[in-house]
Design a protein that fits this description.
Layout (H helix, E strand, L loop, with lengths): L4 E3 L4 H11 L3 E4 L5 H5 L10 E4 L8 E4 L2 E5 L4 H6 L1 H6 L1 H8 L4 H6 L2 H6 L6 H8 L3 E6 L2 E6 H4 E3 L2 E2 L6 E8 L5 E9 L7 E12 L2 E10 L6 E2 L1 H7 L6 H14 L10 H19 L1
Parallel strand pairs: 1-3, 2-3
Antiparallel strand pairs: 4-5, 5-10, 6-7, 6-10, 8-9, 11-12, 12-13, 13-14
């Protein structure tokens, strides 16, 4: 890393200004769990001229504002797992973050990095999509908000403009009639990347489902929320046959790729099974 300049601003607007002036030749460093492996490829083309460290910006907060859980972009996965506020108001996210990588990764990696690095298998992003999360994005001129579903556009791409930094994530708090579920399939226990992951949040009144959001990760170019599945569930009581129908719908929407971890065929099959199992566990 001898050829990289390193800056650690203490003001968010200053950080945005530095990033803007770098004109695409800077990389943001928070936990470094995705950035450093890129550097270790020893290919100069992937190394920027400038590293902009976010650690001095105090973006690791977790707080409750009225009916919204606000999580700073630099909060680590372990911060989220251990947060009483997250466990009470967004337990789905705490569960998903508890299964990301290894303890070392969870203690260093940040929720903002999980979202911004746009990996198809990003467990945090999958859970946040089920929770209908929004992003607050900072720039020199101020902040703007965007739904997470609109933010993640394609593999390893997002809607950040030059000079913009993800500031925080907003999550509507889960209410007493909200139910949730999370399941993932990996190659092995511990330090595993998702082969498929499913996150569910919905309301249940007298066992009838409503306002369901079923998100799937690692089975398409980006994590996605199944609109078809939500329509199938709306107003109906959970049953094994209904859960199987919803699982089949999510499997049909999935568009996975073959890679070293699993075949596309396997991913399409397992995501439907995970959806069924998750829904039945919530019944």
């Amino acid at each position: 890393m001898a050829n990289q300049r390193f800056v650690s601003p203490s003001d968010l607007r200053e950080a945005c200004s530095i990033l803007s002036q770098a004109k695409g030749r800077a990389a943001i460093l928070a936990g470094g769990t995705d950035l450093m492996p890129r550097f270790n490829t020893r290919r100069p083309a992937v190394r920027p001229d400038l590293l902009l460290f976010l650690g001095a910006l105090d973006l690791d907060y977790i707080r409750l504002e009225r009916q919204t859980l606000v999580i700073g972009a630099c909060a680590t996965h372990e911060d989220i797992v251990n947060s009483i506020l997250v466990r009470e108001h967004a337990p789905l996210l705490a569960k998903a973050c508890s299964e990301i990588g290894s303890p070392a990764i969870r203690n260093a990696g940040t929720i903002g990095g999980n979202v911004c690095n746009r990996a198809p298998s990003a467990d945090g992003t999958t859970a946040l999509m089920a929770l209908d999360a929004s992003m607050v994005i900072a720039s020199e001129s101020g902040d703007r908000a965007m739904k997470l579903e609109d933010f993640v556009t394609s593999p390893f791409s997002n809607r950040l403009k030059p000079g913009e930094i993800l500031k925080e994530i907003h999550i509507p708090v889960m209410l007493p009639d909200h139910k949730w579920g999370w399941m993932k399939q990996g190659q092995r226990r511990g330090s595993s990347f998702s082969v498929a992951a499913v996150a569910v949040r919905m309301e249940m009144h007298d066992r009838a489902c409503s306002d369901a959001r079923i998100a799937a990760g690692a089975v398409a170019p980006t994590p996605f929320v199944s609109k078809t599945a939500s329509a199938i569930l709306e107003g109906k009581p959970l049953s094994e046959s209904l859960a199987e129908k919803v699982g089949a719908a999510v499997s049909e929407e999935a568009d996975p790729q073959d890679d070293s971890r699993a075949s596309a065929w396997y991913r399409k099959k397992i995501v439907g099974i995970l959806v069924k199992r998750t829904l039945l566990a919530m019944a």
